[in-house]
Write a structure and sequence with these properties.
The chain is an all-alpha fold. The chain has a single domain, classed as CDP-alcohol phosphotransferase transmembrane (TM) domain (Four Helix Bundle (Hemerythrin (Met), subunit A)). Helices cover 77% and strands 0% of the residues. Helix 1 crosses helix 2, helix 3 (43-63) runs antiparallel to helix 4 and helix 4 (66-93) runs antiparallel to helix 9 (203-215). The longest helix has 30 residues, at 98-127. The radius of gyration is 20 Å and the shape is globular.
Length: 255
């Protein structure tokens, strides 16, 4: 039992997002303890299930009302646990594939759009103000910009240096500093160091924000935070990656 848990823990993403790091990813490992031995369950099927649950959560938000909002909060967490499970299972079974990674990331992007689009509509239905819709659009657009500039920069950097992707992959390799076998002190230090990640306002933070806003019915205040954080991080990442490219040698690139 201990050996299997240790193997599963090793599949956890080393630089997980804030809420994923100590809530949804560990829950995914617990669920995978049984799921990895069920051959009918595959990483791609878990990805599909995660997306289906995410769509169900968005529908609950659109229906509206306290009970449906709470149901949506539960489903959002379930979707994210499944989202953690697919990659863990693929790494445990050593069956990771480019197409699996592609659809995993694609569905992540779409479900954020569905959730916040639904929240914008629900807040509009409550207040009859278009402001929540506008805030949702800003947040979704600039969250998408964060990913878009990353891949634009990767394309340009690779054109300048074909070895760039391999160099970045090497830099991203992290050794575990906490988990099973590291002791209380190491895990406590890891836990404290994880907390500043809440300021990154990435998908892991969204899970917490969305759930809290739905449970306490505070949709518009949450949308203000979402829009402001994504406006900042989207703009900052775009500027940062542009400066990184400018600092490298120049090369004529086709638009």
């Amino acid at each position: 039992m201990t050996a299997k848990i240790t193997q599963l823990w090793a599949t956890k993403t080393k630089d997980d997002e804030w809420w994923s790091s100590f809530v949804t990813a560990p829950l995914g490992i617990v669920a995978n303890y049984w799921a990895v031995d069920m051959r009918v369950v595959t990483p791609n099927r878990i990805t599909a299930a995660s997306f289906a649950v995410a769509v169900a959560a968005a529908l609950c938000i659109l229906i509206g009302g306290v009970q449906w909002f709470i149901a949506a909060a539960v489903l959002i967490h379930l979707s994210h646990i499944l989202d953690c499970m697919d990659g863990q299972m693929a790494r445990y079974r050593k069956t990771s594939s480019p197409v699996g990674s592609y659809f995993d990331r694609l569905t992540d992007q779409v479900q954020v759009t569905l959730w916040f689009g639904a929240i914008g509509y629900a807040a509009y239905a409550q207040s009859l103000s278009v402001v929540p819709v506008f805030l949702a659009l800003i947040g979704i657009a600039f969250y998408g910009l964060r990913g878009y500039v990353k891949y634009i920069a990767m394309e340009i950097e690779t054109a300048m240096d074909p070895e760039h992707p391999a160099k970045m992959a090497h830099l991203r390799r992290l050794e575990p500093v906490a988990g099973l076998g590291f002791g209380f002190t190491a895990n406590a230090k890891w836990f404290l160091k994880e907390q500043p990640k809440i300021l990154d306002f990435d998908e892991g933070v969204f899970i917490f924000m969305l759930s809290a806003a739905l449970v306490f019915d505070q949709l518009t205040p949450m949308l203000w935070i979402f829009a402001a954080s994504q406006l900042f991080w989207g703009s900052f990442r775009a500027w940062q990656r542009g400066m990184n490219i400018a600092s490298n040698h120049k090369l004529s690139i086709q638009k």
